[in-house]
Structures are given as C-alpha cells and as structure tokens.
Amino acid sequence: MSTIAPQFRFSRFVGSLFDIIFWILLLFSLIGLPIVFIILFYIKMPLVNHQLLTPYLAMTWMADPSRTLPIIKTLLHTTFFHVVAFPGFGFAALLAAATIFIERKFLAKIQLRVGPLYCGKVEGILQLMGDGLKLISKEIIIPAKADKPIFWVGPLLFLGTAAAFVSLIPVAPGWVVANPSVGLLAVFATIGFFPIITVLTAWAANNKWTFIGGLRALHQMIAFEIPLILSLLSIVILTGTLNLSQIVESQQHYWWIIFAPISAIVFFICIIAELERVPFDLPEAESEIVAGWLTEFSGMMYGLIQLGTYLKLYAFAGLFTVLFLGGWNGPSVWPPLSPDLITNGITIGPITAKIAGLPLFDQEMLNGTLWFVIKTVGVILVILLPRGVFPRIRIDMLLHTGWYKLIGLAFINIFIALGLLYAGVLGPGGLIQ
Amino acid sequence: MTTPLPPGIQLEKVDDRIMTLNVGPQHPGSGHMRLIIKVDGDYIVSCDPDPGYVHRGEEKMAEYRNYVQNIPHLERPVIHDSCNILYPYCLAVEELLGIEVPERAKYIRVIASELNRCVYTLYWLAIYGIFLGHSTMFMWPAGDRELFIDLLEAMSGARVTHAYLVPGGIRNDLPANFEERCLRQVDYFEKRLKEYQAIFYKNPLLISRTEGTGILSRTDAIRLGTTGSVLRASGVDFDLRKKEPYDVYENLDFETVVRKEGDSYARSYIPYLEMFESCRIIKDAIRKMPKSGSVRTKLKPNPKGGNDEVYKRVESGRGSLGYYIVSNNRPEPYRVKISVGSFRNLICMPYLLKGELLGNMPSVYWGLNYWPVEADR
Amino acid sequence: MGSETEKDEQPSETAAISEDAESVSKDETKKSHEEQGIDFSPDSSVHPKPIPEFEKSISDKIASKFGSKINVDYVRSSRIRISTKKEDILDVAFFIRDELGYDHAESVSGVDYPDSKEIEVVYHLGSYTDDKLATHVLTLATRVPREEIPNPGKDSTRMTSLREVFYSVEFHERECFEMFGVYFEGHPDNRRLLLPEDWADIPPFRKDFKIKGR
Q1: B344 near C CB under 8 A
Q2: A394 partner at 20 to 30 Å CA-CA among B49, C12, C25, C209?
Q3: A15 pLDDT exceeds 90?
Q4: pLDDT tier at A254 (50, 70, 90 boundaries)?
C-alpha cells in the first residue's frame, strides 16, 4: 500500500479549491485594487494609439485581441524588453543553453556515450534546467574567513559584466540593446572587467586553490586580451568604424573573414582562452588546482557564474559572427509575409477572430535573426567541441602562445589590411565596394 | 602576545615566497594519498608524499588466516589487477607446500593475469587522460575495459574481485566457447588501441606537454630501485616475464617494451604499448594451451607450510610484485610481506617533482603508475 | 631458469633460522597440539636438491670475504639468504653492492620473534645492471634486540641504516620503523609513513599487537 496521499478526501479537495478562490478574491480586492489606484495616481502611463494606457483600459483590451496587439508592439520596443528578453539576456541565455545541450550530446557521441537521456523524456532535453534547479536548491556555503562582501558580490558582478557584453551585440537590423558609436571599444572595456572580478573573488575566498586559479586566470586573460584587441584592429582599419551595426552593414557582399583570415584565427583562439575552455581551461584545471577560482562557490553562486559563462560564450560567438561572418547578412530565406496578413489578420480555426497586424516582426528582422542564430550556434559549437579532442595545456605554453605567437600573427594581418587599404582595393572608394 | 601552544603542536615557520599546498586526500588530482607540496610561484620546491590513508594491514591480517582463507583479502589492494596480485602468492604457497600445477591451469593463469593487466592499464589510462584534461581519453578506456571485465566475469564469475587464482591452479575451468569469444574481443580491442594512439598519444598538445618533463635518468632509475613501466621508460630492459619467467611465460611469444627517454611521455606510452604485447600473449596462450585436462591440484585441508621461507615475484601492471612468506609449521603464515611496485615507485615522487611546474604535477604523478591503495596495503 | 618446480630444502640450514625462535615454547606448543589432535608435521616433502653452481659461487665469494661474520642460510636456485650481525651489515652491504653488482633493494621486511626477543630485518636485494643477476634475489637478514615495552626510536631496537648503500631502501625502512619500531641510525628521514600521526599504540606488526576478535 503506497499511495501518494493516503489521507485524500475528494470533498476536502473541492473545499480547498473554494478556499483558494475566496482568498484570491479577498486579497485582490483588499490589496490589488488599492495598488491600481496608487499606480494611476502616481505613475505616468504611456500613450498607446493616442490613448492613455490605464490599468482599466488594459483590462478591457485583454478581452479584445486586436486591441491588445498595440500594447505588445509597444512593449517589444521598450528598453526593458530589449534588455530582458529579445536581443539581450533571455535570448542569449536560451541560445547558449540550447547550444550547450547540443554540445553535450555531440561530446557524448564522440566519447561513445549517450549523454543526457532521461530528464525531459525526449533525449534529456531538460537536463540543463534540472541542473539549474539543483543548483538553486543547494545550500550556499561561505568560507569562514572569506572577505564576505566581495565574495557575495563576485558572481553578481560576473553575471552583470557578461550581460553588459551581451547588450552590445546586434542581432538584427535595429535590434540591439545598446548601440554606441564606439561599440568595439565598449566591448574591449567590458572584457577588461573579467580579470578584475576573477582576481577579486579568488582573493576574497581566502583559499590557496582559488588564489592560484585567480592568478592563472589573470595571467591568461591579460596575455590573450592584447592579441584579441590587435586582431580586431584590422577590421576597424578596413571598415573605418567602431560601431558594430555599421561593421555588419559593411559586410553585405563579402565577409571580413575572407580578407582577414589570420585575424579570425587569432581572435578565435583568444575567444577560447578568454572563455577558459579546453584546451585553455587552466584556471579551472581540476587535477592541479581543484576547481581553480571557482573552488569555494556553491549553490546558486556557482550557478550565477555558470550563467555568466554561458552569456559570455554567446557574446563572444556573436561578436565573432558580427565581425567576421557578416552578422545578420544572408540570403533571404524567410518566406515573405503577405500584405493580406498584415492588414486583415489571420483567421484562427473555427473561432473567426480576425487579428490585424499580427506578425509582430517584419521579414527583414526575422531573416536577419535566423542567419545570426545559425552562424552563432555554429561558432559556439566550434568553440566547444575541442573539448573532446584536446588535453589541457600548461601555463608556460599558454603564455608563450599568447605573448609571442598570437601578437605576431595579429600584426601580420594588420599590415595586410593596411596594404589592401592603401592599394585601393578595399575601404572608402576602393575597387570592391 | 604569544599565547602558549598546546603540547604537541608546533607552528611551522612560513617563508614569504613559499606556499605549502596539501594535494590530497580530498583533491581531484591525488587519489587516496597526500602530497605536501611547497611551491615558489608556479614551481615546486619540494614534495613530501604522505601515503597511508587506505592502509588496511593486509600483511597483519594474513598472519591470522590460513593459506586458503588469505586468497580473497590479499587481492583487495588492487581490485583492478587482482589476478596479478594473487599470482606471486599462489606461486609462493605452491613452493612452500610443494604442489605441482597442471599444465592447462598454468596457461589459463597467464591468460587471466594478462586480461587483468589490460583491465588495470585501461583504468590507469582513463585516469591519466582526465588528469591531463582529456575527457575523451577518460571515456574510451573506461568503456573498453568492459570487454575484458566481461571475459573475466565469464571465467571467474566476478567482475572485479575474481579470486580466480588459487594455490594449486585456478578455481574453475574456462566456460564453453571461451576461446573464440576471447580471440574476437582481443582482435577488436587491438583495433581500438590504434584509435587511442590517433587521439591521444599523437596529439601535439599532449606531446608538447609531457615530453621532456620529469626526466628520470637510467642511473637514477636503478639507484632509486624503481620498477615496472617507470624503469623500462628509463631504458632498463627489465621485465620479470622475460627475466625470471614464471609458469609458461618462457613458451610464449612477446617482447619487452623499452624506451630510452625517461620522461613523462615515455612513462605514459609504455603501459599502452604493453597492452599490445598482452594481446599477443593472450592469443599465443590460447593457441598453445592444452585443450583439456585438470586445472587444479587440490590442497590438503588446512595445509601447513614447513619451517621455511620463500620470496616469489611476478610482473604486475605496476611493476615487480613480490611476496615474502615466512612459515613456521602452522596453517597460517608466520609473516607475509608484500613488496609492491607502487610503494617502490613512491620514492621517485619527491625526486621527480622537485623543480617542476605545478602544471606538470598530474602527468608526473600519475605517470609513475602509482596506485595508492596498493602502496598502502 | 624455471624455478617454480624446484624444491631444495636444506633441513639443517632452514632449521637454523627459526631454531632459536621456536626453542623456548616448542615443547609446550607441541604438547598442546597433540592434545588437540593437530598434525604438526609439515606437508611439503623434504628432499634435498643439488645446490646450483652460480648461486653457490656468489655465496662463496661472500663467505670467503667475511668468514665467520656471516652465515649462509640457504642457497637455492636464484635465491640466496645470508644473515649477519647488525654491526657488520654495513660492510656486507657495501661488499654486495660494489663487488657482486646488486644495485637496489626490492623490499625491507621485519619479522618479529617475540620468543627469542629479537626482530629480524630482511633486505631483498636485486640487480638491474648485471644481466646474469637479473633473476636473482639476495636476501640479507640481520637481527636486532626487541624490547618488551617498545618506545620506537628511543630504545635499543636500532640498527644502521643501509640508505647510503642502497638509496632505494629509504621508504621501506621508514615503513619498517613505524611497523616494528626498528630505528635506523643514519637514516635522514625517520618519520611515520603509513600510520596516522596520532597513532599511540605499539608498532602494529609486532606479534603482541593483537587484532580484535582474532
């Protein structure tokens, strides 16, 4: 006899449902309605379709889909939505998580395993979500002699910096959170924060392993930031702009990887090193220094760092796509939207509810996003899959690679770019436009 | 300001530049032992191995059990290599009690111990792979190990702790059709071994990382009394299967793998190459084995050794493995000393790690073919 | 070189090893065994084999050099056992290394003989450099006095370390020190190795350390 709820009575169940409904109504009328009035009194509401959007108006619009659409469209173009959902945080995290899942399955196939299998019924598709839930439910342990404020704020800083980096990546024409005219410089500035955060948290944890790991991460990131910046200089020289959207627009006919292949390779290697991925995962080398600078993190603090790493992964892959693979540019493969659809709307099944202006995004944006996603996912996979083939390298080899080889290679491509510019092949007024 | 310390506690004077690291026992790169490492920057200044976390007193336990009861517990130190750690015990007890082993049993013993050597070496290789951050090299050998575990399970009935070898032969005869199955799996395994080479041993990153690190010269290898793959990697051609052939190894066709470099790469390469030789031995032994016959000479109940002592050794996966048994007319041995390869190679650790980079610690440490449980006994 | 079938017992010499160990309580134990009906005779058949030539030549070299200082306990195929006094062991070990070509120690074992109040320390020596000696193991044994109440490192249970002769004995002697309480003079690193730091009992491999329940 093993039942889930041995004390179950149907009458009590129905009674509890009524209880819940009663309490919801009571709380709404006692708390919800006053809040509505407070909002109306103090907060300036937006104008939608030349009407002031009050909560009551919003409630009436909920009943009529055709009147709801303007609200959603307005919402889509607010900065809040950009940051939280589409070109920003949510999109990046979802894309990175999906790619991580694909990577896990691929890696399992390389290693003659099956990979995640049970969680989510279909090939373990919810495994990452399960891992996240596990991390949330775990206890957060702070070392007794840690520098607590810095230790607490470390993961948040890491995640915040990664999200700031994500916000600079243009996904589709006009769809970018922040579009400064010196976007590339902003990228460099944001990347520069990571070593500081790493060393701060490593020091704050008051552990020898985190300290060694932090120092290793610092050495590694600084050694690879210089070739990273130098490798992108050739793109700046060729395009004459630092704005990422303009760099994408300059690649309508050809990608910069054709003219700057060495830069692309150098940049790619630097990406792997900045992301601490195999074969450059020295700061987290478990057989040498336990988990490196992440040793003392537990529970959701570790989860936040992981999330930040995913975001960073997406941002670097997106940056590679934007700079070298033409960003959102690509042949138009998205089916054109019929004007009938936009003006008259669609008919949903037996319920004849005509909703006009339904496709919330235009064709150009959908096509651009599709190409951007395809390219970025490809880049992420290429970043991740060396894990199945390479061992970890040593710190002296790593620094030698960064300081000697990559910087030299990056300079070679700068000279090639300058040559192309002065020969009049590329650039403003060049042969190829 | 200085409060008096409790008796028995000393404070160590800490240098400004030197940091002491406790690698183990709760460390993913140590196993059941501790390395007290002092580092100056990224360079190891000194290393003091501290084994003993899994010391079980096997030698003491053996003094309380008779010669047959000792079989199952003496294989516990290396359950992955249980046939090889029982082999010298069986040889020693046979000499002590004056037992002849049937010819077929000798061949089956050789097959079982070579299969077990592969099981051990694959496990070792898996750990070596993950120590160097190569996750595929962890998964592949760990998966292919199942081939031999299945074979040994068919032979003995147990997956890891077989207790298959007994004084006087083996516990039970081979199952039906074992020969064909064994040959098929060994052939498949040889194909897989070549793939290991492509992904791991010819990997430029691995070569650049391990070549020329932790060099043990030939003179030092002899002086430090190393054994097994560590010794052969330093250019000493010493394999007990060739030098002091026990059972039927003198009839079988195989070669000793020797390399001259003495570095970390050679030490990791030799066990891999020896798996090819093990496959050769298994195939040759199956071909030359008598197809039928007795496999076990029964002992008298509660047999007594004479007033004698005996020292027998075999070549295990980690080098020479010797049993020194003193008996005094009792059913129990008076003293059993197990001289194991891991313990003999332990002395290299402070010697090799001094002056190395911290990043070389995993490759040097695990390249010594060191099994902490065996060293502690 | 097949050594597994050869049996060369030499009753007179093997008896010498454990004669004194057994002599004290032999009669009582024999009596008790007869009362319990236990067969006391060894199972192995005792039939002497001819002494192998090469091994005999090695043992003769040692015997001619040191004379009465050493005792050749047995000479079998590829196994020689020599016992000596603890004062002479350093000289014998130097001779074995320099003149005979044995270059490393395979193990250092202690054997406790509480009846004769002695602990025997047994070195198993082998050779990598000399190919003729590759199959041979030379057993060098010596005896040190044993205290009833041991105080490892501070009592008379001590002998000269062979570390400067055979470098490879370093960890083996440390193990022998903690397990039997034999202090090795001249050993640079006489510390615990396997036992925990807070071990406060007698050295565990001595015979008077009893396992619970046995």
Answers
A1: yes
A2: B49
A3: yes
A4: confident
Q: Flag whether residue B360 sits within 8 Å of chain A, measured between CB atoms.
A: yes
C-alpha span between A330 and B348 (Å, rounded):
61
Strand order in the sheet with B319-326: B309-316, B319-326, B335-339
Say what the pLDDT of residue A61 is. Answer: 66
pTM: 0.81
Q: Which residues of A touch B205 (CB under 8 A)?
A: 279, 390-391, 393
CB pairs under 8 A between A and B: 80
Residue A167: closest CA among A226, A82, A93, A224: A82
Token pair for C15: 């008896």
Name the domain count of chain B: 2
B361–chain A Cβ distance below 8 A for any pair: yes
Please tell me whether residue C164 adopts helix, strand or coil conformation: coil
Instruction: Name every chain B residue with its beta carbon within 8 A of the beta carbon of A387.
Output: 135
Least reliable range by pLDDT among A101-110, A372-381, C146-155: C146-155
Same domain, B32 and B61: no
* B218 Cβ under 8 Å from any chain C Cβ: no
Q: Identify whether B152 is part of a domain.
A: yes
Residue A35 lies in a domain: no
Give B-chain residues touching C124 at CB under 8 angstroms: 311, 322, 324, 339
pLDDT higher than threshold 80 for residue A42: no
Give yes or no: residues B43 and B117 share one domain.
no
Q: Which residues contact A9 (CB under 8 A, 6 or more apart)?
A: none
- pLDDT at B153 exceeding the cut of 80: yes
Answer yes or no: do B40 and B79 share one domain: no
Residues B86, B226, single domain; the answer is: yes
Which pair of structure tokens corresponds to residue A294? 């992440």
B10 inside domain: no
Give the bridge partners for C82, in sequence order: C72, C140
Residue B359 touches chain A, beta carbons under 8 Å? yes
Classify burial at B130, counting beta carbons within 10 Å of its beta carbon; exposed 0-12, middle 13-18, buried 19 or more: buried
In chain B, which residues have their Cβ closer than 8 Å to the Cβ of C109?
324, 335, 337, 339
Question: Which residues, numbered 198 to 237 in chain B, qualify as contacts with chain A under a Cβ-Cβ cut-off of 8 Å?
Answer: 199-200, 203, 205-206, 208-209
What stretches of B235-368 show up as alpha helix (H) in DSSP?
240-243, 264-288, 341-345, 348-353, 361-367
Q: Which two tokens stand for residue B66?
A: 């008779």
- The confidence score (pLDDT) of residue A316 equals 92
Whether A4 maps to a domain, the answer reads no
The residue among A153, A257, A140, A264 whose CA lies nearest residue A200 is: A153
Amino acid A277: pLDDT: 84
Is B139 buried (19+), middle (13-18) or exposed (0-12) by CB count in 10 A?
buried
Q: Is A33 exposed, middle or buried (0-12, 13-18, 19+ CB in 10 A)?
A: exposed
**Measured distance CA(B292)–CA(B330) in Å, rounded:** 35
Contact A285 B42 (CB under 8 A): no
Q: Is residue B11 part of a domain?
A: no
